Amino acid sequence: MKIKSVRARVFEWKGKTVPPQGNFCSNAMDLVYSNTESMSTFRFHSWTVVEIETDDGIIGLGNVALAPAIAKAIIDQYLTPLVLGQDPWDYEYLWQRMYRATHAWGRKGVTMAAISAIDLAIWDILGKSVNKPVFKLLGGRTKEKIPVYYSKLYRTNLDEMQAEAQKYKDEGFTAFKMRFGYGPAHLQKGVAENLKSVEAIREVIGYDNDLMLECYMGWNLEYAKRMLPKLEKFEPRWLEEPVIADDIDGYAELNQLSSIPISGGEHEFSLYGFKQLLDKKAVSVVQYDTNRVGGITAAHKINALCEAYSVPVIPHAGQMHNYHLTMSTLASPMSEYFPMFDVEVGNELFYYIFDGEPVAENGFVQLDDNKPGLGLTMKTEFLDQFNIIE
Ligand SMILES: O=C(O)[C@H](O)[C@H](O)[C@@H](O)CO
Ligand SMILES: [Mg+2]
Q1: Which residue range or ranges hold the Mandelate racemase/muconate lactonizing enzyme C-terminal domain (predicted)?
Q2: In the beta sheet, which residues pair with residue 59?
Q3: Cα(63)–Cα(70) distance, integer angstroms
Q4: How large is the ipTM?
């Protein structure tokens, strides 16, 4: 079997969007812009889809959501020539070709995301070529079904947040991730608002359910050190990305500071990036995204590393490329889950492009042993609401 063609298309959403308003989530730009501008950095309204076809007609699907147009350019100009004519079963060799050919300027960020998209499509081909789901190629079914946590609860007024938490508690979720709206730039009032929002959600879900807290890189070390002691009474399962991804020593200091586990990894890349996080004990929960970190080839290695370090893997975003990694290792107890909403920030777009994404039932998602490859097909229902750039 040989790779005959690679097609990367950018799907730009032009349909209805309902962007969350105000301080819906602290983020890295809060410290350099006033609120309005900083929130505008928070949009993922396009996605690059990769289709790799083999000489025997199998088509593998990959995807990348980080800087989609740039990722497409990297795929078209640099990665496609490296995989054309190659055997997809040589996936480790192909991964190393892509990684080393772009190493001088790649390694992390959008280049690794572009490599991930090619790698996802390759693994989709491998599964389809032997009529097995990808998780069966990685270690098989380690769980009857995958526990997932409900993820959204963007910061808005507390009544709306409580109603949202109640709705998804009633749907059977037992774990919830909420977003802080405030950080260092919002001073003591922001501290009070942050604590009020955690208290409000705990009021709804109680203490029999897990609560995770998301900062999305919007704090700094000094502010996080002030907040952690105030948050301990709420017994969060983790505090996520309190500082920017490059502040690994800051992560490590926070991770030793209190009883609250620090999580991160959705903005870390490659086996080496996670080796560094684990060696420095910077995180207690690893949250790579398989369409960023280096694809299934890299994520599978990181799963093994996390197993050796006894650090749980709870991948970012849910989405099928991550569910196969969670299903195939005991190192991953659960995954994130975004229900399908009107397009807001953009995590939801996956549902508008692909069919096959499992819908949570009672806080679990299920994978199908009889669906080969990743188990995704292209959705046609919303095609007219995308500009598609070849
Ligand atoms: O952990 C997450 O889900 C990410 O940080 C989100 O993708 C981001 O939208 C912040 O909520
Ligand atoms: Mg996050």
Answers
A1: 158-261
A2: 53
A3: 13
A4: 0.96
